[in-house]
Amino acid sequence: MQLNNGEYSFPGGISALSLCEKYGCPLYVYDYDTIKRQFERLTGAFDVKSLKINYACKALSNINILKLFKQMGSGLDTVSIQEVRLGLMAGFSPNDIIYTPNCVSIDEISAAVKLGVRINIDNISILEQFGQLHPEYPICIRINPHIMAGGNSKISVGHIDSKFGISFHQMPHVLRLVETMGIRVEGLHMHTGSEILDTEVFLIGADILFKQARELPDLDYLDFGSGFKVSYKNDGIETDIEDLGKQISKRFNFFCKEYGRDLTLMFEPGKYLVSESGYFFSKVNVVKQTTSTVFAGIDSGLNHLVRPMMYDAYHSIINVSKTEGRKRIYTVVGYICETDTFGINRQMYEIAEGDVLCIKNAGAYCFSMASNYNSRYRPPEVLIYEGKDYLIRKRETMEDLLHSQVEMETLQTALPTGESDFTGLANGVKEGSTVSSKQMS
Q1: Quick check: 244 and 269 in contact, CB under 8 A?
Q2: How many H helices and E strands in the chain?
Q3: Residues 412-423 pLDDT 10s
Q4: Which residues are catalytic?
Q5: Which of 11, 51, 108, 342 is the most interior residue, by most CB within 10 Å?
Q6: Helix axes 81-89, 106-115, angle to 10 degrees
Q7: pTM across the whole model
Q8: What is the DSSP letter of 9?
Q9: Which stretches does DSSP call E strand in 241-340?
């Protein structure tokens, strides 16, 4: 999204405010050009004979986004059987999907085996059960390298107290099981966390992965996970992908030569590929001044974008309706009945009620972590693709909230005369800026 002639717009000259008028607020918008740029930058950073990028679809799992990654030549990293099925529905071949669950039952893993996808196992108990049930099925093993890395303790997953992966100190036990049960190990995997800035962290992890890989003679690939930092503050502070690619490629090629054959180098980025593509638009309901703070209260909340509250994540916020004039300092908050603060002491062009604010870097872990808390609807998603805007998810309605609920006959209440069902009555209530499902279809 760029500012041109005093107006924010997307590729093709699509006005941001026109999208908000067309689809209503709140609204998620994704720019395909940014996704493609990030994918091509990543694939171009490595100089190895075989490279595979598997998009971590938990970041943003709309099936249209998955289809775009399939179109670009990406594989898919999944963490649930539902994501596996979404990937297959999006057209990915089973061999291009890697399933890396955590703390799931052996039954779910067996369901993934039936679907023919690659399996990544991260604990010894499941490894032993898997070897008994599926002795011929090749697997990948996820190790824990005991590296504390990431932008927040909640997204650091490779440290000694993490629930993820098998400690590399337990590899002798793993090797005994592999040998005794005849398990074929085709890959080795690690992931240390998210928002990792320092290339050296990846290199330390790489050395641990290479050391363990030497004990497994029949590997086809090494999966280095991801965790690349994106520039949330638009300050250019991000993982230097080109430097990382140069350093990792050099060490990986040396390892392959030592190992005796070329393996595939894998990564599984999610946030790095889609975060910067996303914009979340919300309308200002109220400007409220207290003794110490000026609040801009918007028509959204942590139910639509929970990262600031969950991870203390920073997201840039701009006033799309005002692109010049006097700037003032605001704390942007939501409408949820609990503290939901998007940004504290943010300097923006003076905000009036009815203005549209944009929260940037909303492509990763925003819609995918959204909920119906306070019985609020989840917003629509729009994709900007080749100069046109496409609705890729409708705004929810009262029917969606009640769809899976079963009303007990003994508790049913009489409806007002002329109303045939409760959802029809509920949807008749004016929803402010919300666009009806008929207008969206």
Answers
A1: no
A2: 14, 21
A3: 766 665 555 555
A4: 337
A5: 342
A6: 20
A7: 0.88
A8: E
A9: 264-267, 278-289, 294-298, 317-319, 327-333
